[in-house]
Amino acid sequence: MSTTPVHLITGLLGSGKTTLLQNLLKQKPSEEKWGIIINDFGPLTIDATLVAGADKIVEVRGGCVCCSAQHGLRQALDALLKAGITRILVEPTGVSHPAEITDLFLHHPALELQAIVAVMTPQQLTPARWEKSALMRDLAMLADLVVLNKIDLATADVIQQAEQLLCQQPRPPQTILRASHADCQLHDLLKPHSPPPLLIWQHKPHQCTSFMPHETDLPGLIDAQRSESDGLITLGYRWGPEAVFSRPALRQVFADTAPHRGKGLIRTGKRWQSLQWADNILSLQETAWQRDSRLLVFFDRADAIEPFETRLKDSILLKLAQ
Ligand SMILES: Nc1nc2c(ncn2[C@@H]2O[C@H](COP(=O)(O)OP(=O)(O)OP(=O)(O)O)[C@@H](O)[C@H]2O)c(=O)[nH]1
Ligand SMILES: [Mg+2]
Question: What is the CATH number of the domain that holds 285?
């Protein structure tokens, strides 16, 4: 029986997983049919709208593919295999634990797991965060290939320190690739995964709580939902098209309150923008028309939510829908 190669692109929140997918899709050989599985954490579709060029994209929502959305992942894999896809790329959420997903791929008779990729940044790979984050250590231990991304934002010392941390662990990655804007070559990923002889996971796989309604008085909201997992609080907001955001005010909101991570698709004036907040940088890029504005924000402290929402309120105008 022939098998379909599957690539697992792991990494912490905001490290550049979707950027890597976008770059790989530009290199897709014309004779191949690629299927992408994106597991955006939260009730909103964001990453899947940013990925172009795949033959099929399946979005798995309702939690992490490593726990509550495992069934959704199995269904997505089956749908892609039925559709005659010849290569599958999977982006789990930045809070997913990799071991559970790896087991699913290794035991699936129709799949051949390729080199597991962990996209990490030198800014994330500091000794303090390494010590604190069991998820970071597990991602590094399972990865065959670490894409050390965002080196454009790091000094030579910070990059070297990150590489040392990766090499000192019990199972160093076979390859570490320095990258800027995840500018990797497809052939770097075309190797089978080599399972470690024995892995002792330091991390108890989490169970992300399901999203619950979130009380807030932000204007124009369709809904707001909240979930908590591994010390991170995630808020997903959705507004109708009458909500219009001021770009300068939004920049101020994020600069002043600096949440852990944020991403969204929002209406500003007549245009729609893709919003990204990572590494204390806010970027807004024009994007296609959307049905509604969406924002997914991760906080590491509950008391950071109220100041964020208070400022966010001032960035929203309500206009007649156009
Ligand atoms: N300066 C710089 N920015 C980058 C680089 N790679 C990605 N980014 C930006 O970082 C932000 C997050 O990138 P994504 O690719 O969405 O990260 P992700 O890992 O998919 O994020 P989640 O899915 O939310 O975990 C975006 O604004 C990217 O444009 C890089 O090498 N350098
Ligand atoms: Mg992503």
Answer: 3.30.1220.10
Q: Which structure tokens are listed for 297?
A: 């924000």
Q: What pLDDT shows up at residue 22?
A: 97
Specify the DSSP element, H or E, that contains 160: helix 156-168
Q: Which of 9, 13, 19, when mutated, tests ligand 1's pocket best, judged by the most ligand atoms within 8 Å of its CB? A: 19
Predicted confidence (pLDDT) per residue in 108-136, tens digit? 999 999 999 999 999 999 999 999 988 89
Number of domains in the chain: 2
- In this structure, are 219 and 180 located in the same domain? no
Single-letter amino acid code for the residue at 167: C
| The residue count for the chain | 322
CA of 37 to the centre of ligand 2 (A): 11
- Tell me whether residue 260 is in a domain: yes
Euclidean distance between CA atoms 263 and 261, whole angstroms: 7
- Alpha carbon distances (Å) from 312 to 251, 268, 316: 10, 14, 7
* 282: Cβ contacts below 8 Å, ≥ 6 apart: 250, 251, 254, 255, 275, 276
The pLDDT assigned to 161 comes to: 97
87 in contact with ligand 1, CB cutoff 6 A = no
297 lines ligand 1 (CB under 6 A): no
Domain span holding position 111: 4-189
| Ligand 1 neighbourhood includes 150 CB (under 6 angstroms) | yes
Helix 98-106 and helix 70-82, axial crossing angle in degrees, nearest 10? 40
3-state secondary structure of 205: coil
pLDDT in tens, 227-264: 988 789 999 999 998 999 999 999 999 999 999 999 99
The rounded Å distance from CA 77 to ligand 1 centre is 25
CB 88 within 8 A of CB 7: yes
Residues 22 and 150 in one domain: yes
Residues with CB under 5 A from ligand 2 (ion): 17-18, 47
